[in-house]
């Protein structure tokens, strides 16, 4: 199945700025367990005949300090407003079964919780991106200040499977608890980028 998607991707974990595991999974994270999430808003895309624009999802995770060791716990939460076809496509992409960048990350997941379909709410302005799942998650990332306060502080040419090469550095605050994965952060590692994923199959 050929597919593509582009949009906004932002994250927060309990590491100090910057998360070593974000740079490479072989780096040791700040704490014994790395707890965080990725928030995805698809602004355009196609999965076979299924349009992907408008889809929102959150991927919450718990990983060891040495992330490359694997045995992550992960859950995908898809906005309940997605159609059945969009739900299936989104789950296949974000669990790695459709190939592409998430297939690489899926190799590190030792325990995958059942995909959930809940209302996912996003908002953003120039500096801050927020995600909310009523009763489950409240999260925000805000870009850090640089020498020129009118401009973001950037990572450039960073190799990362799911983010764009150009990423905006931020700090994040999150409260999330699904009974298995529990995230509670305040002004820790955060960033966001405008991603584009593409898989071409003959």
Write up what this structure looks like:
The chain is built from three helices and 13 strands. It is mainly beta and 202 residues long. Strands 1, 2, 3, 4, 5, 6, 7, 8, 9, 10, 11, 12 and 13 form a 13-stranded mixed sheet that branches. The protein is globular and about 45 Å long. The mean pLDDT is 96.
List keywords for this structure.
202 residues, mainly beta, 3 helices, 13 strands, 10% helix
Order of helices and strands: EHEEEEHHEEEEEEEE
Cα separation of the termini: 8 Å
Q: How much β-strand is present in the residues?
A: over 45%
Count of helical stretches = 3
The biggest beta sheet is recorded as: 13 strands, mixed
Q: How many strand elements?
A: 13
Which word captures the global form?
globular
Round the mean pLDDT to the nearest integer and report it. 96
In helices, the fraction of residues equals: 10-25%
CA radius of gyration is: 16 Å
Low-confidence stretches: none
**Main structural class:** mainly beta
């Amino acid at each position: 199945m050929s597919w593509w998607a582009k949009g906004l991707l932002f994250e927060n974990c309990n590491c100090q700025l910057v998360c070593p595991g974000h740079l490479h999974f072989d780096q040791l994270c700040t704490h014994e367990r790395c707890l965080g999430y990725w928030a995805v808003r698809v602004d355009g895309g196609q999965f076979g005949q299924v349009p992907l624009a408008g889809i929102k999802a959150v991927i919450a995770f718990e990983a060891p300090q040495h992330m490359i060791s694997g045995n992550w716990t992960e859950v995908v939460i898809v906005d309940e407003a997605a159609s059945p076809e969009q739900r299936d496509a989104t789950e296949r992409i974000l669990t790695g079964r459709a190939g592409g960048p998430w297939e690489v990350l899926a190799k590190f997941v030792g325990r995958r919780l059942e995909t959930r379909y809940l209302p996912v709410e996003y908002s953003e302005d120039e500096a801050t991106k927020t995600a909310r799942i009523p009763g489950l998650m409240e999260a925000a990332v805000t870009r850090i200040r640089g020498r020129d306060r009118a401009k973001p502080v950037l990572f450039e040419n960073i190799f990362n499977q799911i983010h764009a090469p150009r990423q905006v550095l931020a700090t994040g605050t999150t409260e999330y608890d699904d009974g298995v994965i529990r995230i509670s952060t305040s002004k820790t590692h955060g960033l966001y980028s405008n991603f584009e994923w593409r898989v071409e199959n003959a």
